[in-house]
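A reminder before we start the practical. When you read a complex entry, don't treat the lines as separate problems. The point of joint prediction is that each chain is placed relative to the others, so the output describes one connected object in space. Small molecules and nucleic acid strands, if listed, are placed in the same frame. In the example below there are two entries. Take a minute to note the order of the lines before looking further.
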Amino acid sequence: MEEYINGYIRPRLQGDGGEITFVKQEGDEVTVLLQGECSKCLILDRCLSWIEQRAEADRGEKIKVIGIRKKPYFQDV
Amino acid sequence: MAHIKVTRRSMRPEEWISLRFGWLKRYIYSEKHEISSFKIKDARQISEMNFEFYDGGEFRPLNKGDMYFTPDGTAFIEADYELPEHLEGKKYCFLLKTAAEMIVKVNGVYVGGIDPNRERLDLSPYVEGRNLHFEIMGYNRSKPDDERNPESLSVRGCRQIFEGGYIAVVNEAVQSLVYDLEMLLDAALSEVFNEDFSALVIREIDSALNLIDFDDVRDDDIRAASEYIDKNIFSNKDYKGSGRVALIAHSHLDIAYYWRRIHAVQKNLRTVLIQLRLMDKYPDFRYAHTQAYTYETVEKYYPEIFEELKKKIAEGRFEPVGAMYVEPDCNIPSCESLIRQCLYGQSYFREKFGITVNNCWLPDVFGNSWILPQILRKSGVDYFVSNKMSTWNDTNRFPHNNFIWRGIDGTDVYACVPPTHFISWNMPSQIQENWDAYQDKNEGGQTMQMFGYGDGGSGATEEMIELMHRFEKLSVMPETEHITAKEFLSKNFDGNEALSVWDGELYLEMHRGTFTTKSKLKEYNRKLEFMLRDAELISTMRMIEGEDYPAEKLRNIYKKLMINQFHDILPGSHITPVYRDAMADYEEMEKELSEIIGNSGEYYNTLNFTRSNLTFIPDENGDIVRNGEKGFFAVPDIEGLSNGEIIREEAEPDWIMIDGLKAETPFYSIEFAPDGSIISLKDKELCREWVKGDFNKLKMYHDTPGNYDAWDILPDYKDRPCEMKLEKELEFVSVGGECAEFAACFATEKSKWKMIIRLFRRSKGIEIEHVVDWNEKHKLVKAEYGCNVLSRELVCDTSAGKITRETHRNTSWQQARFEVCHHKWCDMAEQGGGVALINSGKYGVSAEGSVMALSLLRSTIRPDPTSDMGEHDFCYMIYPHAGDAVAAKINEKAFEYNIPLRKADIEAALPDFSPLWLQAVKLSENGRYAVIRLCEQNGERGEIELPVEATVLNLIEDEIGMTDKISYSPYEIITLGVEI
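Here is the predicted structure of the whole assembly.
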């Protein structure tokens, strides 16, 4: 899963000015760190749900993605 | 008695108007027919015209309310629709509200574009019959085209909800009233116009809207309201505005920024298409579009649109502006690179459209080098346009808008720095603000106002043009004129002797971090600029010897370099994938150039003067590892443009005496501090001390400029130093016949930094190499050099001459230049001597008093959170010297430091053209001449006799005349053609 998030999902989010890094997996719960544009996205939940759909389609794994936002220092209010 | 602030709870007239205005907009479409047959397939763009599809590329139904688009996604959407019978032969449009950027084809015809700035396109003029087949290509990303459009911002995000697509009929009367109100409300509520006028407008709009029954909106009421506005507002001429504003439609297109270069192909096409369709609707509409590269992509991938574009260009309605190939950064690219931007830009415009573009159009670049005026004038360009200095300077107000810019060599070019931003939506308040800010009202004629959405393209909208057609009705506004850029520039500048002169660089007091951000791009760019020089020179020599000149290959490599010099690529202000693309391009270019140059035979000195300085020679048997490559140091002593052998002298290592942190070399008595900084550097030849204060001292600072993280460095960065812990004190590492190495190691919690110091037997230079594993955030590292010289000036290389910047802080102008761009070297000297820093890819430097500080690395997080992370290895040279930089031949030393010896057996000969710098040797674009470009770099004047008569060319290779003698003046660029 770490390889999938960092190798497959990450370039796609980076293409949108975002950044995602795998943090941990506990059971079907996958925690990711979100930076860049993702960290301040107003509709991030839609993107996380897309990651869940892709993981199921590509790997046959049902997961729940938990996103931790790390906003840039100048917007962390 | 307690004071209670009373808040008005009843509705103000403005609020009541705003509410009804919203209701009115609901009636813009008199008919809406939903298209329910949409289907979609999701993809990701992987090259300019190739896409990787998800889920086997199968279409799935797309219904209103469905989620669509994916991160970094492109979607292909199709639909078939039968037009209601009663609409056949009537006017109707396609309506789709979206955050994405869409190119729409119906029945095989490119009918237009839809994006966050426009929700509909006219269909009826372009399609026949009732069966409509839609093919839509949409690209969506988290950052919209234009952050200045609040509507765009509100819908940002990778995943969007499909709001449905419709065939609709516009109620022209309602739409017209909406445009009237858009204009009037902007004027009335903006506070830039007369307040009595604003009160009148609010009062009368209120009365006009009272004529509409919003429970039962009827066309008669709409017409009555419009007539009321005509009679009571537009006919009122009691309020007089002043000023003359030229309105020029334009869309700024970043070739790469929050998107990759591959995406710009469609962003550009959409922009061009939208403007062409506006021209179909509005015969008076003119639009200006830059960058030959973007036209090339239309020609290559969308030939039918290109044909349409050519016709509009021939009619003078679609106007190519900006003579350059792309809109490059104008700080970091070298003189020859900027020349090639013009050469390849103008060559394209001439070949395809039969025009020479007489203006340079760089609205968004981060400051402009002093060498530009000469380059432009010698490339057929008389006018320079750039907005940033007026709208982005953080300290001083740039004092002119329409003026004459005098270049380093004394060449003048007409310059327009419009008073306001290059992105505007053509509102009365924006036009008035422009006139108010315009500083050359008396001398400069009209002020220039660009309008259109931009950054990611898009451009003018129907609304902007409709408003423009109403401006003459609004007496309070300045007089406006919608004209082409060419007309504006000619009308207001030609022969205008009252214009002020700005003699100096156009320094932008902002974005100073872009000289340093993404260090590797800068290093690679420098390396490839010189590699291209040598590849062209060697290829020309081989051509003289009878071989083929790889013209096409070299031109393509040059164009790739040009693209990567775009002002959001080379400066480092872009997202992660843009960096990856650039690095991949650089690696490919290096490989291709290595193949062209070759690597066999004797060493060839491509410089036009004898290499007399110690040079690193890569060699597997070498005793030094430098930049990760084994080799040795030697003094080549090979004449300019000649072959020769390298003799590796086997000297005894007794030329240096080392005693702990002290060393004696043939040139210096040196005392180091444990951190590698130099406490004392006594020059044995000149009997003087060079050090005063911290010298060769690494300094790390917190670097938190805010939202423009990659772009900016704050003026107070020095107030927040942070520690880089000395992990291993400086120690002697090795000594050979030519070089002795010392090293010290530093570390933070996340990074490791090794500083290698090289002292030499036969060079006064002291080389510093930094090998870094860099994992910081928000840090800037500088290497500081406090010099024992009394100087109030820093002399900096521009790549085509030197510029002098004061190092005191007397006025706000010097204070604002706390970080400047230099090229291969900078120098601080007094009468008897000075200290130069010669680099191989560092551009940011600061100087205060007698302290120079070279900016080495940053670690920014926006737009790219991974910026500059990882391994770095870079070198530069400290060079103390007698005399000033010219007397010490620092420029020549810098060329030697940056341009390696090549391996190539060359028999053909060229004169050395001494003392001019041989900047380029190439085959002319028409294949007729060997082009020789010379550049005076020291500020001197003189004459050179030529061995044969040559044709004098300008920079775009037009023939100017014949000569057998060159009379050169300070900083002059001279181009000759020798017939082959």
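Discuss with your neighbour: Chain B has five domains: 1-25+175-239, 29-170, 244-510, 692-902, 910-980. What might explain this?
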